[in-house]
Amino acid sequence: NYAYLSSKFAGSAEELGLPTNKLIPGVPVHRWNQQLSLNVLDRFNLRVAHQWFDQIALNDENTVFTPSYHLVNLYVAYSFEMEKLALSVDVFGGVNNVLDEFYFDFLQVNAGFGRYYNPAPPRNEFAGLRVKWTIK
What number is the average pLDDT over the span 82-103? Predict the structure, then answer.
């Protein structure tokens, strides 16, 4: 999906002391999300998610912006049944932030001392095992 949102200060903004015709901070103008999910025989699952964020204004005057960035996450899983034991087992893993992008978490609009954001986590990997026992 694609989202376009160009929200600007207008109308009574000047009366409130806000700059007119400036982007409202904290909102990207362009954002693009896509996801590919592949399931094979209800056993194997592959999911790749991609997000692109346009630069984001961090103050009312629009003098400080985040850079735009791509965020890619990967998830794989394999499931199998052990019918005699009434168990189903899922083995899964993935990588968040595959491209190891520097991006922003928790924007602090109009923050003091130049601290407009907290950095988001770098690339990280995860893995797990899920066992389900069904009592019949």
Answer: 92
